[in-house]
């Protein structure tokens, strides 16, 4: 199989050719969070935000972003996604909304970028919907937690890669 690289023989950027790779079930899980004032989190939990259902809108935004990752990130492949889930967990003790995205496909390349994009856009949407009451929110800790499928096997944050 040819080397998987974003550079051609002349050093120019190109999309990686994944044509020779086999199709496998691929899964990626990403997480992140939005830290906010306790009173801002309370507005979300109680459904009293002026712009409406913050988490409902952020969920749809995250799903849509996963589907359009190839339009946002240079050299990403357009991928037919078979499943996208975006979930939220408010944590009142830390005054954060935790975000998790799970993305799946049956394909030749992984969906890590799609999961990370879903979390990022969901976090940005939360910020957008609440910025009028809390411009000091902090978006962060966006990271890949799990990936499986393909030649590299399973990868878990905090653990070793395995077949």
From TrEMBL:
EC number(s) recorded for this UniProt protein: 4.6.1.17
Keywords associated with the record: Lyase, Molybdenum cofactor biosynthesis
MF (Gene Ontology): cyclic pyranopterin monophosphate synthase activity
UniProt cross-references to CDD domains, sorted A to Z: MoaC_PE
Catalytic residues (UniProt): 128
Keyword Aminoacyl-tRNA synthetase appears in the UniProt entry: no
GO biological process: Mo-molybdopterin cofactor biosynthetic process
Catalytic reactions on record: (8S)-3',8-cyclo-7,8-dihydroguanosine 5'-triphosphate = cyclic pyranopterin phosphate + diphosphate
Annotated pathway: Cofactor biosynthesis; molybdopterin biosynthesis
Molybdopterin cofactor biosynthesis C (MoaC) domain: residues covered: 15-150
Positions bound to substrate: 75-77, 113-114
Protein's UniProt keywords contain Lyase: yes
Assembly, per entry: Homohexamer; trimer of dimers.
Biological function: Catalyzes the conversion of (8S)-3',8-cyclo-7,8-dihydroguanosine 5'-triphosphate to cyclic pyranopterin monophosphate (cPMP).
Similarity remark: Belongs to the MoaC family.
Protein name per its UniProtKB record: Cyclic pyranopterin monophosphate synthase
Organism this protein belongs to: Thermalbibacter longus
Gene that this sequence comes from: moaC
